[in-house]
Design goal:
Layout: E1 2-3, E2 12-13, E3 25-29, E4 46-50, E5 67-71, E6 78-79, E7 85-86, H1 98-101, E8 102-105, E9 122-125, E10 129-134, E11 138-146, E12 150-151, E13 155-156, E14 162-166, E15 169-175, H2 177-182, E16 191-199, E17 202-209, E18 215-217, E19 219-224, E20 239-241, E21 256-263, E22 282-283, H3 317-321, E23 324-325, E24 340-345, E25 350-358, E26 373-377, E27 380-386, H4 388-392, E28 399-407, E29 416-423, E30 435-436, E31 438-444, H5 466-516, H6 522-528, E32 535-539, E33 542-548, E34 554-560, H7 564-572, H8 575-591, H9 602-610, E35 641-648, E36 651-659
Parallel strand pairs: 20-28, 21-22, 34-36
Antiparallel strand pairs: 1-2, 3-4, 5-19, 6-7, 8-9, 9-18, 10-17, 11-16, 11-19, 12-13, 14-15, 14-17, 16-21, 21-31, 23-30, 24-29, 25-28, 25-31, 26-27, 26-29, 32-33, 33-34, 35-36
Binding site for ATP: 558
Biased composition (Polar residues): 651-660
Region (Disordered): 641-660
Length: 660
C-alpha cells in the first residue's frame, strides 16, 4: 500500500509483502496540513496498516521519485534475482537510429558467478551515443553495470577504451572495464560504477569510444535520493575537514563516485534490503588490517530509535545492528596497545568524503562517557572525542558523521586511505574500547573531472589490440631482462671493487708491517753505534751499545750471540716456542691498534692465542711510526726491536733499542 504526497501536504507509506509467518500489525499516525479545514478533524488519527516490515520494528524506507532500470541490448523486459524489473532501451530513451550507432551483443561465455540480468546482453557503441532520461529535478544515483568479457566475434572488452559523461560532465575518461575488474575489491567478475549526480528535467548520459575503439555497457540504473543526502554533511549537517579547523562545504553542482560502502562486522546487504535507494553494502573483512584486531559483538535483536537528524533511510537496520569493537572485555587495557584499523586503496589526487555510521550495540553502554575513542583518518585526528551515546542521545539511536580528506600522490598513484579508532582515556571511561557500524567512502570531483586512471595500466587513447599487447609484453620482457643484466653487472663490478680495495689494504698493511719488521745489516748497526764504541750496559745474552739513527733519534743496540750463553739459549728454543712468540707479538700488535674499533675484545684475544699462527691476520695498521727515509730493505722478518729502557752506571736513559 502506498499513499503519495498530494496537494494537501501529507504522505503515507507502508511496505506490504507476503510471509509464511503470521502478519504483524503496526499503527502509523500521520498529520494533516492545518491549512486545510477538511482534514483538521482527522488530525492525530491512527491508521492500522497490515504489513510485514523489513526487520522487527523497521521504519518505512525511502520512496524514490525516479527509478530507471535499463537492460541494455535486451529485446524484452526481464526480472532480476531480487524481483526488480529491467526494461529495454527502446522508446523515448534513445534516438531512432539506435541500431546504426551501436549494436546489441551477448557474451561468448557467461561465468557462473555472473547473474543473468542485466549481464546477458550488452550495448556496443561504435560512435558517440547519448541516452536521454526524463527525470524530476534533484539528486540521483547513477549506476553503470559492466561485465568485461568477449561479446561474439566483433568485440572484446580488453580492447575497449571509452569515456562517459553526464550532461557534459566527465565521469569516466579513457576507461577500460577489463583492467578495472581485475583489481576490483571484493573480487568479482563484474562490477557496478555508482555516481551521485544532479539533474533537472533531462539527464543526458553519453558514451564516447576512444580512437579506434568501441564502448559498451550492460545496464543503466537511475534512482532518486533525498535532497542533499551526501552533500549537506552528517547528522549535524557538517563535513569535518580533516587537518583543518574550517568545515568542508559541497555545492549543488558537485559530482561524487562511490568507492566503498561497507557493513562493518556484518554480512553483505543486498540492494532490496537497503532503505529504498537500492544500495549494496559489502562486508569489511577484506579491508580490516588484521582479523584478530577486532571482534563482532553478538547482540540480541533490538528496535532502533531513528531521529529527525538520523532518518530511517540513512542506512539499513542490518548496518546499525552489527558492529566491530576492539574486544578484550576482561582486560580492556590491552586495547591501548593497538588500533582498530582499516585500509582502503584509493586513487591519488582527489578529495574523499568519508561517512562513518555509529550506534551503541551493548546494553551495558547506556550513558555518556562510558565508551569514548578517537577517530584518525590518514594518520590525522578527525575527531578527538567520539562518544556515541552523548552524540546520538541514546543507546539505540544511530548517528553518522561526514569527513573530508585529501589523498595526495606522495605514496604512489594508488595509496591507502587509512582509518583508525583508538580508545581515549583522558576522561577515564568505563570501557577502553571503540566501535564502528558502517563506512561509506566517496570520491569528489577533480578539476579535470572525476575520472581517475585505469588500474595498473594507463593507456592514452585507443585500442589495445592483440598485436600491441604482444609488443607491449615483449618490450616489458626485454626491459626487465636488460634491467636484470645491468643490475648483475653492477653487482659484479661492486664486488670486484671491494675485493680489489681489500687486497690493496692488505698489501699496504703488509708493506707497512715489513717496514715495522726491519732487520739492519751489521754494517748499518756498526755505523749507528760508531763501531760499538759506546757501551751503556750488559745483559744476560749480550752487550748493549748506544747509537744514533740518521734522523738523530737515539737507540740502544743489543748484540746477541757473542758468548756461550746465547748459543745455549738459542739451542733451547724450539719451533713451537718460536711460533708462540710470533703469535704473541701479532696478538699484541692487534691489541695496541690506534683505532679502538680495530682492537679485539678479550674473548677474541683468548681465541687468537689458543688458535694457530696461520689463522691470524696481519694487523691493518702499524703500531708505531718508523721513518721510511732510514729504512731501505723490505724484509718480512718479525720485529726484533722495541721501545725500552736500559740502566747503565745508575743513570736511566730512554733509547730506541735494536737487537741483532
Amino acid at each position: 500500500m502506498r499513499v503519495t504526497r498530494n496537494k494537501y501536504g501529507f504522505k503515507l507509506l507502508a511496505h506490504l509483502s507476503s510471509s509464511s509467518s503470521a502478519s504483524s500489525y503496526s499503527s502509523l499516525i500521520f498529520f494533516l496540513s492545518k491549512k486545510t479545514m477538511i482534514f483538521n478533524v482527522l488530525f492525530g488519527l491512527s491508521i492500522l496498516v497490515s504489513a510485514t516490515l523489513r526487520g522487527e520494528g523497521a521504519p518505512t524506507a525511502y520512496d524514490p521519485t525516479d527509478v530507471f532500470l535499463i537492460n541494455c541490448g535486451a529485446t524484452s523486459d526481464t526480472n532480476d534475482t531480487s524481483g526488480r524489473t529491467w526494461t529495454t532501451e527502446y522508446g523515448k530513451l534513445v534516438p531512432s537510429n539506435l541500431d546504426n550507432l551501436s549494436f546489441a551483443a551477448t557474451p561468448s561465455y557467461q561465468d557462473v558467478e555472473v547473474s543473468q540480468v542485466p549481464f546477458t546482453e550488452a550495448r556496443i557503441f561504435q560512435s558517440e551515443f547519448t541516452y536521454k532520461f526524463q527525470v524530476s529535478p534533484g539528486w540521483k544515483f547513477l549506476r553503470l553495470y559492466f561485465y568485461p568479457t568477449r561479446y561474439g566475434s566483433n568485440f572484446s572488452s580488453n580492447s575497449s577504451f571509452f569515456s562517459v559523461t553526464v550532461d557534459g560532465f566527465t565521469l569516466l575518461k579513457n576507461f577500460n572495464a577489463d583492467l578495472t575488474v581485475r583489481t576490483y575489491e571484493p573480487e568479482s567478475k563484474y562490477f557496478v560504477k555508482e555516481f551521485i549526480v544532479t539533474a533537472y528535467k533531462t539527464l543526458r548520459l553519453t558514451f564516447t569510444p576512444s580512437t579506434d575503439s568501441l564502448a559498451f555497457v550492460n545496464g543503466v540504473e537511475i534512482v532518486s535520493i533525498p535532497d542533499g543526502f551526501y552533500t549537506k554533511g552528517g547528522f549535524d549537517d557538517k563535513i569535518k575537514n580533516v587537518g583543518s579547523n574550517i568545515d568542508f562545504e559541497l555545492d549543488d553542482e558537485i559530482t561524487l563516485e562511490t568507492v566503498y560502502r561497507l557493513n562493518v562486522g556484518g554480512h553483505m546487504v543486498s540492494v532490496v534490503n537497503d532503505t529504498g535507494m537500492f544500495r549494496q553494502w559489502f562486508s569489511d573483512d577484506d579491508f580490516l588490517l588484521s582479523e584478530n584486531s577486532g571482534i563482532i559483538p553478538v547482540v540480541a535483536s533490538v528496535k532502533l530509535n531513528y531521529t529527525e537528524k538520523t532518518p530511517a533511510y540513512v542506512a539499513p537496520d542490518d548496518v546499525y545492528k552489527t558492529s566491530r569493537t576492539m574486544g578484550n572485555v576482561h582486560n580492556p587495557t590491552l586495547n591501548l596497545n593497538f588500533n582498530l584499523t582499516w585500509h582502503f586503496p584509493v586513487d591519488a589526487g582527489f578529495n574523499y568524503l568519508v561517512r562513518l555510521h555509529f550506534r551503541e550495540t551493548l546494553a551495558e553502554v547506556n550513558g555518556p562517557g562510558q565508551r569514548v575513542f578517537t577517530i584518525f583518518i590518514r594518520n590525522q585526528i578527525a575527531k578527538l572525542l567520539m562518544d556515541v551515546i552523548d552524540m546520538s542521545g541514546g543507546s539505540r539511536m544511530p548517528v553518522y558523521l561526514d569527513f573530508s580528506v585529501y589523498v595526495g600522490s606522495e605514496s604512489g598513484l594508488r595509496p591507502d586511505l587509512r582509518l583508525d579508532l583508538h580508545p581515549y582515556t583522558e576522561i577515564a571511561p568505563r570501557y577502553c574500547d571503540a566501535i564502528l557500524n558502517g563506512v561509506e567512502i566517496l570520491k569528489l570531483i577533480n578539476d579535470d573531472g572525476i575520472a581517475g586512471p585505469n588500474p595498473k595500466l594507463v593507456m592514452s587513447g585507443g585500442e589495445l589490440t592483440g598485436q600491441k599487447r604482444v609488443i607491449t609484453i615483449t618490450l616489458i620482457a626485454v626491459g626487465s631482462v636488460t634491467g636484470l643484466v645491468s643490475i648483475l653487472v653492477l653487482l659484479i663490478l661492486l664486488v670486484r671493487r671491494q675485493i680489489k680495495r681489500k687486497k690493496n689494504r692488505q698489501s699496504n698493511s703488509v708493506a707497512m708491517f715489513k717496514v715495522l719488521l726491519k732487520h739492519y745489516t751489521f754494517a748499518e748497526v756498526k755505523k749507528i753505534t760508531k763501531s760499538f764504541s759506546h757501551t751503556i750496559g750488559k745483559g744476560g745474552f749480550g752487550t748493549v751499545y748506544g747509537g744514533n739513527l740518521c734522523n738523530g733519534r737515539r737507540v740502544a743496540v743489543k748484540v746477541l750471540g757473542f758468548n756461550g750463553k746465547w748459543r745455549r739459549f738459542h739451542q733451547r728454543i724450539t719451533t713451537e716456542e718460536n711460533e708462540i712468540a710470533k703469535k704473541m707479538i701479532l696478538v699484541s700488535l692487534w691489541c695496541i691498534q690506534p683505532c679502538p674499533m680495530d682492537r679485539p675484545p678479550m674473548n677474541r684475544v683468548v681465541e687468537m692465542l689458543e688458535g694457530s699462527l696461520d689463522s691470524l691476520e696481519i694487523p691493518p695498521k702499524p703500531s708505531m711510526h718508523i721513518s721510511r727515509g732510514f729504512v731501505t730493505d723490505q724484509s718480512s722478518s718479525l720485529p726484533l726491536f722495541s721501545h725500552g729502557e736500559e740502566k747503565a752506571g745508575g743513570n736511566t736513559e730512554t733509547f730506541e733499542s735494536i737487537n741483532i
